[in-house]
């Protein structure tokens, strides 16, 4: 049976270290079949993202990625690195998303190229809903997406 795994708004949890990421990754790995992964409302750094990305590689059945408001207080240099590690993990797993919500993240034009590669991959061929509201993409970013 497919499940929703939610870490949404865990008191605006700040995941900075590899250890922080391992605690999230452990819960992802414990869940046999994840339909929806909701990380919204927390803040994720590069080091913490590494074990989470590794866990994502074990879940090709993932359909919905709710990752809005995930990078509050993060540098604009961190966001592209985290997004690339997550999207590469989903491509590796053979994930076929139907919904990707990255709203309310300061993605900006610096990260759109990595997302563009993901959006044109097989992982997004069945994508029905793409939410990029309030991401600071600008006109060039919107054209790319």
UniProtKB/TrEMBL annotation:
<dbReference type="Pfam" id="PF13516">
    <property type="entry name" value="LRR_6"/>
</dbReference>
<dbReference type="GO" id="GO:0031267">
    <property type="term" value="F:small GTPase binding"/>
</dbReference>
<keyword id="KW-0343">GTPase activation</keyword>
<dbReference type="GO" id="GO:0006913">
    <property type="term" value="P:nucleocytoplasmic transport"/>
</dbReference>
<keyword id="KW-0433">Leucine-rich repeat</keyword>
<dbReference type="GO" id="GO:0048471">
    <property type="term" value="C:perinuclear region of cytoplasm"/>
</dbReference>
<protein>
    <submittedName>
        <fullName>Uncharacterized protein</fullName>
    </submittedName>
</protein>
<dbReference type="InterPro" id="IPR027038">
    <property type="entry name" value="RanGap"/>
</dbReference>
<keyword id="KW-0677">Repeat</keyword>
<dbReference type="GO" id="GO:0005634">
    <property type="term" value="C:nucleus"/>
</dbReference>
<dbReference type="InterPro" id="IPR032675">
    <property type="entry name" value="LRR_dom_sf"/>
</dbReference>
<dbReference type="InterPro" id="IPR001611">
    <property type="entry name" value="Leu-rich_rpt"/>
</dbReference>
<dbReference type="GO" id="GO:0005829">
    <property type="term" value="C:cytosol"/>
</dbReference>
<dbReference type="GO" id="GO:0005096">
    <property type="term" value="F:GTPase activator activity"/>
</dbReference>
């Amino acid at each position: 049976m497919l499940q929703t795994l939610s870490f949404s708004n865990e008191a605006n949890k700040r995941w900075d270290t590899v250890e922080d990421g391992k605690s999230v990754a452990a819960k992802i790995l414990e869940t046999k079949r994840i339909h929806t992964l909701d990380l919204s409302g927390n803040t994720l750094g590069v080091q913490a993202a590494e074990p989470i990305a590794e866990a994502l590689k074990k879940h090709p059945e993932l359909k919905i990625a709710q990752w809005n408001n995930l990078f509050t207080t993060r540098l604009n240099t961190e966001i592209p690195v985290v997004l690339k590690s997550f999207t590469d993990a989903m491509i590796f797993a053979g994930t076929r998303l139907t919904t990707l919500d990255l709203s309310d993240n300061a993605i900006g034009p610096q990260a759109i190229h990595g997302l563009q590669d993901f959006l044109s991959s097989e992982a997004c061929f069945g994508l029905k809903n793409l939410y990029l509201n309030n991401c600071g993409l600008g006109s060039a970013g919107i054209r790319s997406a």
